[in-house]
Amino acid sequence: GRGEARCGVAGFLPEQETSRWGAGVRLALDASPRGPAGVRWGRLASDGTRRQRPGIARVRRQSPARAAMGLLRLLVLAVLASEPGVAGGAETVGNSSEGLLEFSIGKFRYFMLNRPSPEDAILRHISSNASFLIFQIHSQYQNTTISFTKTLLRNTSGTGTDKGLVFILRPEQSMCTWHLETLDAEPVQNMAIPLSYSERDPVPGGCNLEFDLDIDPNIYLEYNFFETTIKFAPANLGYARGTNPLPCDIGTGRDSRWRLLYDVYQYFLPENDLSQEGLLKHLQRMAEVPQVKASAIKVVTLTANDKPSVSFSSLRGQGVIYNVIVRDPLLNTSAAYVPVHTYACHFEAKEGNCSSLGRVSTKVFFTLCALLGLFVCFFGHRFWKTELFFIGFIFMGFFFYIPITRLTLLTYDVRLILTAVAGSIGGILLVAAWWRFGILLFCMLCVGLELGFLISSVTFFALLGNLKIFQDDGVFWVTFSCIAVIIPVVFMGCLRILNILTCGFVGSYSVVLAFDSYLYTSLSYITLNILKRALHEDFHRAFTNVPFQTNDFIILAVWGMLAVSGVTLQMRRERGQPFFPAHPYKLWKRERERRVTNVLDPSYHIPPLRERLYCRLTQIKELFRKEQPAGERTPLLL
């Protein structure tokens, strides 16, 4: 009858097919409470056959017209079942009563929230096996409020872009409701899903003592330029409906919440993707435990004795989703917290928002550095002084930027200008030191340390950065310095090769940094992570994972091509040439002595530079001298 059809067509279709087809099938069956003529009511078995329901006899044969109408109704059901938006099961738009948003367990739903018209969400037909529910709602950057009641209280509601509530079910309870609203002036696109868990599953946030909610399944995220930190409340063991939860702080044995483990996962959105649709689509992969394990990267596992807080390197403009899965190793069960996302930037900021990350000053600075680096990559060894200026610029600029950032409150643009000035002075000083003293080993030490710095940065970026031993600053800086110093020591017997390798790899890497000013690439964090660690005292605890996607592969190929091409070209061109140019000061002094002793040299008769400048100034003064009147210029004698 009609009541049987409304209960999920339990007498006509398998339960999984009913939930997959959605509201369209239920409405069609509501419209046809009785089976069509000539068709037997029955239950479909897993193999597709129909089993006769007990107590229902075969219906006698009806007229051909009524039989045709029955076949037409079955055809309508088949069309509804094959609709693309419903068959997938990942996104549904369930039945909506007047003023209510109806949800189904494990089904995502998209909807709009407006400030003048809040909504109420309802979930029906909750399984008796469920012990508690987690209802979570997500938006890109506009805040949404979720509450148990229309009266907003701190311990029963939450506001943010990724929020959720735990609903502890009472015995025999099969329906629950939530209140949803937003205070944003613009309409907010949301996505929400309710998830059910049994009494054996741990309760995320069940032992919350820090945040407002009594049971808080949310992950709280804070970020700055250097690091992104997530915090969450400890979980508790699961319990059946109608029973009291286990105490959180009584006992630390295997029968308490101290046996629980917390797996922290990280998921990267596609690079340069700031779209709302892309975010909500990828959030679906981070809501349930199986999808999180299959899609995300497990960063670390925390025990109940560890502080429930993890730090990551901030990736400005790169979307990242974080989630925590709490596991009960004794019962082999698990539950997921509410996932949280960040771009490490503000969408509505007037300056430096997510859509325009590269400042004009940054683009100008790194573009000029890339042009100079590209020249050094292919011609650095032949134009030795230009290369020394480039090396001195990098050294002085890097070591000047660190103290001026840590000790002053100057704006970024001012610091960048001062860094450029200091770097130019450093480059000029290194060139002047070579010109006057001609100490090749000192200059090559600077060159080798530059290459060693880059190789050491790549080593920590790709291999060693997330090892726990290197969270100690002393161990990190000693290891980093040893790798950087060993490079010039290894190449001490072949200085020309060392110099050409430095020109090729360091010069081409400046092009990578210029790319990052216009288009995001993870390769810029090779050196940026080292700079962050030198600037921020708490960065040692941050995990430095970065995405490596299509853009990064392309830019890595460009970097390698430029480096190999530059090294090969300079090796071939310098074959048979002197290893390094002669001492400039000695050449100048020798030429000066030659000019003094050789009177037949035409340059001998050229006045010194001081006399030539004085003569030129005298000529310029004559142009501005007032013309004297003609006639007698001396006093008349009496």
UniProtKB/TrEMBL annotation:
Subcellular location: Membrane
Domain TM7S3/TM198-like span(s) in chain numbering: 367-571
Residues spanning the membrane: 364-381, 388-404, 416-435, 442-463, 475-498, 505-528, 548-569
Record Pfam families: Ig_TM7SF3_N (PF25992), TM7S3_TM198 (PF13886)
The entry's keywords: Membrane, Transmembrane, Transmembrane helix
UniProt topology in membrane: Multi-pass membrane protein
Full protein name: TM7S3/TM198-like domain-containing protein
Organism of derivation: Gulo gulo (Wolverine)
